[in-house]
Amino acid sequence: MPLLRKRYTAMLEIYLVEDNASEAVVDVWMLKLLDRLPVIPLPLRQPDPDVPLDLAAVLNAIYDEAAYNLSIDYRQVPPPPLSKSDNLWLENLIVPLREE
User: Fold this and answer.
1) Maximum pairwise Cα distance, the chain
2) Which of 5, 87, 91, 93 ranks highest by number of CB atoms within 10 Å?
3) For residues 44 and 47, what is the distance between their CA atoms, to the nearest angstrom?
4) Dihedral angle at the C-alpha atoms of 92, 73, 87, 6, nearest 10 degrees?
5) Cβ count within 10 A of residue 74
6) Global confidence as pTM
């Protein structure tokens, strides 16, 4: 049986669940691969207000601190296969990384 290859449009779902004694609140962010990660409200205990958490900044800091640029081979095609538009976006994004 031949292997069927499907092109994926990458999606990301972010769930933030706040559970207190009176009720549970769920916030959901649906993102495409090309979307910037959002700044989400990080709930604290009452009476403190939510604190903004910049997910893109956190991910970038982790990437830099862990030196992933040294352990990821950007010449390889990442799985799964992407749609044409997502693949074009990715190629433009990683060209500078391939030159490092």
Assistant:
1) 61
2) 87
3) 8
4) 180
5) 15
6) 0.69
Question: How many other C-beta atoms can be found within 10 angstroms of the C-beta atom of residue 82?
Answer: 19
User: How far is residue 9's CA from residue 80's CA, in Å, rounded to a whole number?
Assistant: 10
Angle (CA) 88-100-72 rounded to 5° is: 70
Tens of pLDDT, residue by residue over 24-74, are 777 888 888 888 899 988 888 889 998 999 999 999 999 999 998 888 888
Beta pairing partners, 25: 18
The three-state secondary structure class of 42 is strand
- Any residues with CB less than 8 A from the CB of 86 and at least 6 apart, and which? 8, 9, 10, 32, 33, 34
Residue 86's identity, in one-letter code, is D
Closest residue by Cα to residue 51 from 35, 65, 40? 40
